[in-house]
Design a protein that fits this description.
- The structure is a homotetramer of 328-residue chains.
- The first copy, chain A, has 2 domains: 183 residues, Rossmann fold (3-Layer(aba) Sandwich); 116 residues, Phosphofructokinase domain (Rossmann fold, 3-Layer(aba) Sandwich).
- The first copy, chain A, is 42% helix and 18% strand.
- In chain A, the strands form 2 sheets. Chain A has a 7-stranded mixed β-sheet with strand order 3-2-1-4-5-10-11, sandwiched between helices. Chain A has a 4-stranded parallel β-sheet with strand order 7-8-6-9, with helices on both faces.
- In chain A, helix 1 links the parallel strand 1 and strand 2.
- The radius of gyration of chain A is 22 Å and the shape is elongated.
- Chains A, B, C, D: Its cofactor is Mg(2+).
Chain lengths: 328, 328, 328, 328
């Protein structure tokens, strides 16, 4: 390998935490060590960059974390990094320590910060997509998404037990403020009668038609999975409206909430995080900057960070049709 | 064994469903079969008894259910069984089929119905404690309780990942309208800073003192586990009050909800259910009636059903102290 | 959609069972129903085809199976289907029932049978890749692979607890007679010191060098993950050889075995199985034959079945390097 | 509380590791801290006592370990502690540090060491039963047993998926060199056809009779759970013998092995460990010595350590009958 474009890098986790962030961090630190790049961890995202909260990290700093949820570097949203002054402070710390490359693990907001930071100060940045929402362009899956799907699915499987035993209708809210990936996939995987996501214009009439069709086929209990960001109505309102038209239904609401962000990462997430963490460091070494490391069909690919932010993984239209066909 | 006191029995599940009800049902059906007792399953609790919704069951009727959550007989709360007319109809069906013994799997309400039914019509009844709440006297644990504890604990473990990563305070509501068993044990098992249960008079000041003490020891994130039936305030109110006194806290609320009722039963619940289902049938055979089968320190014991209803498993005071000591 | 190329189809599962086969079956049956195609399930793979063991299936035949491991149609390896006479009998049954399309869920062997059957008798066949080994060309993942990875990983995580507590070395054998996918990915995900797979020529010296390097970094316990089909030696032989050179090591062996084939499918496997089952039916309707339905980077693709058999998913060379770098 | 009988205590984990040992350690350390007792952790069991490998522990030393398998103090079997010289060295270290009480978390062997140590040198010792085997008298359950049961059960549930799909017979070996608790309870919980344990004289004829009876009832697949210490034959021999008499059977063997020792402890184990760790410290404070802290029917009880070693929890005879009745 020719000479590395970076000598000393820093790594941070920012935005909502996601299972596998620790595995990505471990990969960054150990890959840097393997290639004789110095590596610093930054605590609490961009806030740590601004406050100079750096931590020298070696291979042993990241032992026994590949299987842990959350992020040992902690995460935070930083208002100050949105200001020029904040970013200047952050840059000064980088200069002081001689840091010439920055790995930013997070989502949209994290990448936007990284992009501006690079454009203003020229420091090399590379993004690693860590968010359960899977709403980042340039990678088949984001880190944490697969684990969150399994967590949501397991919870809905359990809810189905009680729904079936009592002939109940459940409206289950899963995470996803802007994206319906978790709802669509966990709903498909649990045989949900209907799945409501922000990417599609849903109507209450269609939902009610589905209820009526289910009755005809003798289905005595139903699960409706609703993304957090669904525009038609939230789960409580949906329950209320349904009760009006179907007064005999025994209707319940469940909000899966923050447990979807935690837990030991799945194998797919640990492997993805390991590969992207590796890819982020080798990308920086090869001189890449302002890109995001992603994985497509098992290949490591780099996408301009601007594209990763602006474009979005599109919900597969087929999946909507398939979920409808299979939830007879 | 001398001659059995019963020749034909029926079994039903009633009240809120609990993991392990199927395992208990399987044990009832197969034990009856082993001892040449005819056995009927009754659908949807006491409603099925009233409506004559009986199902002849043999060993193969209950195959592959020991590991399934919910209840294949379905469950329901019956208003009609609270009336004399309803119970008369139920008794008529029993007479018609020649049923001389009834196994009722459920909680307090289920047992109250069974007791009245026995007192009015003389039909032998035996209760099997199936409820996640563990609020039944006469058994160390109720069926479903252990599974619910593990479900709640796993969810709180996940929430802790994100609480720790973001230095947050979480108020987590677990099930238990009248009893704090789930809250106390899952809270202890997850190192909750505080645990609020209906059996104890809690004060907001004490909670706030705990927050302040935690700050002093450098604890950056906290979980407070709150039983559904807590009298001081619900999780939303607690979050609001806390925010007023601790405006810097990043506070979130999570309601674990119905997933706590479902899922494949734990080993302890499957074994308990198997033993109690067996004990219910052999108890009826030996002429027992108006009792509940329970397990104490690995021994099968029968408790008068009246006692099982009126008395309550007491929250262990030690546990409250221990949880306080250990959540430093 | 223009007229369907098939009117009556059959579906079978063959070869080693894999989690998600039931989800694929459900998708085939319900998709067929949706498009007014008659659908038969065939019991015990090609044996059922030969013996005429067909089962008419409708939407309700596949309820509550999406979350179940194994295959309700059962699976078997059929010697008789390898003979012309056997296949003739199978074809006669198809003719008798008017079956004009066949969905074969399984692996290499299953597809070879399907291909010959198609070539001899012209009946349309389509393959669905269901095997935990992931050794099928034409799809990013096979059905069951993701679940098996998580099962293996969870087991190795547990073994690590005891390895660490006792400073032990564990040789863990995972499934994969010809392919190292499970070993490589589960080993990477659990931080294995070394991973031995049939695709690479391994040497005992290299393994011993890794042990010595681990000692130098102060690593007190180690996991070595070995694919079933590793050519260097099996886990027992490896343990013995290691003991000779490292007499102080406390060495243990674990063979994860058949549990890797079972369990409730992961979300990814349920979704993959649903999409491929759907794709198999719509593929047949569109006139496709002698192809396999697969998923690449979230897109449904069809690969000539001959190619799916002859080519192989290649182990990613990067992954070997990454696992070495990260297991410092 | 009157004055404590101890001022400075040490705690160690010894023998085979068990899930919940960390939770017990945490409880010991934090209870000691609460009552102003100094507390030292001893590394690697009695070896650490002999080598003076002590570690001062405070509340923060045990944070985030309640949910971790294994033991952060590490465990080992010590040959040297079986010698007078070894124990003298250990005592000298205790004297030097002023340690006047010792909490020993482990099983039979651990307690025997503790007892001799106390008798020779008078230092107060208290045992905490930490072993997955549940073969300790004086407590309903030992720490780790419940988790191991669930691990074994989950694995057997998975094996059943593949057994059922292929009509196979599986001989599954679970841990338990001297005790059949894990075999009996996990076998009962998974509907095993037969369960072979060292406490009962098993015969191959009886096993074969069970196979023949199962055939009659149409059971196409079977699981036989065998304790490690079964005297009749090991799983490989059983498979071979069965194959001779039932040549048509497709027979497989699975050895669950060391994964049964690991994993995050169940809620019951975390609570049990917390209560016993608390009870060990308060017991020492009250002047108790040469006893074991145990839990019976939710009450903390102390048993003379000699009794805990000599007597054994008896396999419940009812359970054997029940497992036979239910595995029809």
């Amino acid at each position: 390998m020719k000479e590395s474009a970076v000598k000393k890098i820093a790594v941070l986790t920012s935005g909502g935490d996601a299972p596998g962030m620790n595995a990505a961090l471990r990969a960054v630190v150990r890959t840097a060590n393997y290639y004789d790049i110095e590596c610093y961890g930054v605590r609490e995202g961009y806030n740590g960059l601004i406050n100079g909260d750096f931590l020298k990290m070696g291979p042993r700093s990241v032992k026994n974390i590949i299987n842990q949820g959350g992020t040992i570097l902690k995460s935070a949203r930083s208002m100050e990094f949105k200001t020029k002054e904040g970013r200047q402070k952050a840059y000064d710390h980088c200069v002081r320590l001689g840091i010439d490359g920055l790995v930013c693990i997070g989502g949209d907001g994290t990448f936007t910060g990284a992009k501006i930071f690079n454009e203003e100060f020229g420091i090399r940045v590379i993004g690693v997509p860590g968010t359960i929402d899977n709403d980042i362009f340039g990678t088949d899956n984001t880190i944490g998404y697969d684990t969150a799907l399994n967590t949501a699915m397991d919870a809905i499987d359990k809810i189905r037990d009680t729904a079936t035993s009592h002939n109940r209708v459940f409206f289950v809210e899963v995470m996803g403020r802007d994206a319906g990936f978790i709802a669509l996939n966990s709903g498909l995987a649990t045989g949900a009668l209907d799945i409501l996501i922000p990417e599609r214009k849903d109507s209450i009439d269609e939902l009610f038609t589905n209820f009526r069709n289910a009755e005809k086929t003798g289905k005595a209990s139903s699960i409706v999975v609703v993304a957090e960001g669904e525009k038609l109505a939230n789960v409580y309102e949906l329950a209320e409206k349904t009760k009006k038209d179907f007064p005999d239904y025994d209707i319940r609401v469940a909000i899966l909430g923050h447990m979807q962000r935690g837990g030991s990462p799945s194998c797919a997430d640990r492997v993805l995080a390991s590969r992207l963490g590796y890819g982020a460091v080798t990308g920086l070494m090869e001189g890449k900057t302002n890109v995001m490391a992603g994985m497509r069909s098992n290949d490591l690919v780099y996408t301009p960070i601007e594209e990763a932010i602006k474009k979005h993984n599109e919900i597969n239209k087929d999946l909507l049709l398939i979920s409808k066909i299979l939830a007879i």
